[in-house]
C-alpha cells in the first residue's frame, strides 16, 4: 500500500476521476497533489465528503499533543464549539496562522488579547498560543520549543478547520514543501505522518467549514475571495443611511449614520460598491451577477439585523473577512448566502 506524501491518501492506479489516482506506480504524489503543487490545478474537488465528526473522534482516540491551527483572518470560522469536551484531557496548543495577512498596525499583544477573549467566550481552554505566518516562517522556533516541552514522546496531531493553513505550517516546520498546500478546502484527505527533526507530526484532513462562504462559491472564485497579501483597510466615512455591496457575496446596510466610519478588511480583489440605502434593493437587483460579482452558486440569501450597541463592532463573515463599524449607527443589516455564518463581535482592531 502506497500513501501519497502530499495528502495522505492511499494511491490507486485505475480511476483518474477518483482521489489518490496516479498514472504510474512508484510515484510519491497522486496526480491531484502533483497538479495542485505545480500548476494550481484542482482536478478533483474534495471540499465536502470528509466526515468532520470522524476526524475529531479519531484524534480523540490518539495519545498525542494537539497543535490546533486557526486562521487569524478567518478566526470565527476556525472555532470548534465544545473542543475541550470533544478532546477531553488533551493538551492543546493553538497556532494562530496567517499573521502576515493582518495589518502591521495590529500588535501581537492586541491579537493575543483578542484571541483569549474570544476563547473565553467560547469556553475553550488551551495550554499556549503561538502566532505563525505563511511566508516569514514566524513562530517555527516557538512551536518546536513548545513541542519539545509538551510532546513527551507523543506524536503531534495538527488539526483545524479546512483551509486554516495546517499543511503550510508543517512545510515551514520541515523547511521544505513536503505536504500539498493550496487555497482549496479539502486538500489533505487522510491522516498523514511525517518526521521533522526526529519528532512525529500527523497532518489531518481539514474539519469541514459548513457555515463558510468558501463552501458556497465556485472554486475558481477563491483566488479573488481569499487574500494573498497583507490586508489594506478600505475606509469609508458615513452620514445618513449607506449600503455596501461586496461583489455579489454580501450586502451591508448601515442605517442612521452620523460621524460614523466603516472599514473593510477583505481581499483587495473583491469590488466594494457604495450607495444610498434607499436605493440598495434596486441596485442589487439591477447589478447582481454583472457588476456585483462574484456570486454564490445558489442565488439564495438571508439577512441578519442588529442594533449597534458596541462603540466599535466587527461584522465577521465566515470565509470572507470582516467590516468594522464605529461612531453613531442605529442598525446594521448584513445579507449573506444561506448557510453562511455571521458574527457580531467586539472589534479586533
Task: Give your account of this protein's structure.
- This protein is an alpha/beta fold and 349 residues long.
- The protein is built from 9 helices and 14 strands.
- The strands form 2 sheets. Strands 7, 8, 9, 10, 11, 12, 13 and 14 form an 8-stranded antiparallel beta sheet that branches.
- Strand 2 (92-97), helix 5 (108-122) and strand 3 (128-131) form a beta-alpha-beta unit.
- The radius of gyration is 21 Å and the shape is globular.
- The mean pLDDT is 94.
Question: Cα-atom Rg, whole angstroms?
Answer: 21 Å
How many helix segments? 9
Q: What's the average pLDDT?
A: 94
Tell me the number of strands: 14
Q: Could you give the order of the helices and strands?
A: HHEHHEHEHEHEEHEEEHEEEEE
Brief rundown of the structure:
The chain has 349 residues and is of the alpha/beta class.
Amino acid at each position: 500500500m502506497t500513501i501519497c506524501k502530499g495528502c495522505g491518501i492511499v494511491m490507486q492506479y485505475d480511476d483518474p476521476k477518483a482521489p489518490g489516482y496516479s498514472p504510474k506506480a512508484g510515484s510519491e504524489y497522486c496526480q491531484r497533489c502533483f497538479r495542485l503543487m505545480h500548476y494550481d490545478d484542482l482536478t478533483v474537488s474534495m471540499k465536502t465528503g470528509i466526515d468532520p465528526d470522524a476526524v475529531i473522534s479519531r484524534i480523540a482516540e490518539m495519545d498525542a499533543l494537539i497543535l490546533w491551527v486557526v486562521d487569524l483572518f478567518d478566526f470565527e470560522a476556525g472555532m470548534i464549539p465544545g473542543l475541550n469536551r470533544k478532546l477531553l484531557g488533551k493538551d492543546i496548543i493553538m497556532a494562530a496562522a496567517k499573521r502576515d495577512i493582518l495589518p502591521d498596525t495590529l500588535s501581537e499583544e492586541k491579537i493575543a488579547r483578542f484571541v483569549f477573549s474570544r476563547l473565553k467566550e467560547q469556553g475553550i481552554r488551551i495550554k499556549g498560543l503561538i502566532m505563525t505566518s505563511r511566508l516569514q516562517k514566524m513562530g517555527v522556533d516557538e512551536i518546536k520549543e513548545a513541542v519539545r516541552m509538551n510532546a513527551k514522546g507523543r506524536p503531534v496531531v495538527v488539526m483545524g478547520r479546512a483551509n486554516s493553513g495546517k499543511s503550510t505550517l508543517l512545510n515551514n516546520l520541515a523547511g521544505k514543501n513536503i505536504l500539498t498546500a493550496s487555497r482549496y478546502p479539502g486538500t489533505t484527505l487522510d491522516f498523514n505522518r511525517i518526521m521533522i527533526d526526529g519528532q512525529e507530526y500527523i497532518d489531518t484532513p481539514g474539519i469541514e467549514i459548513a457555515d463558510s462562504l468558501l463552501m458556497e462559491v465556485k472554486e475558481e472564485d477563491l483566488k479573488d475571495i481569499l487574500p494573498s497579501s497583507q490586508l489594506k483597510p478600505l475606509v469609508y466615512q458615513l452620514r445618513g443611511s449607506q449600503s455596501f455591496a461586496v461583489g455579489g457575496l454580501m450586502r451591508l446596510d448601515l442605517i442612521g449614520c452620523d460621524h460614523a466610519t466603516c472599514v473593510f478588511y477583505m481581499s483587495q480583489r473583491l469590488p466594494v460598491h457604495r450607495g444610498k440605502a434607499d436605493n440598495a434593493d434596486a441596485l442589487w437587483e439591477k447589478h447582481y451577477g454583472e457588476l456585483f460579482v462574484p456570486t454564490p452558486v445558489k442565488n439564495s440569501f438571508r439577512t441578519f439585523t442588529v442594533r449597534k450597541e458596541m462603540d466599535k463592532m466587527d461584522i465577521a463573515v465566515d470565509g470572507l473577512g470582516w467590516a468594522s463599524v464605529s461612531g453613531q449607527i442605529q442598525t446594521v443589516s448584513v445579507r449573506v448566502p444561506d448557510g453562511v455564518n455571521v458574527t457580531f463581535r467586539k472589534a479586533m482592531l
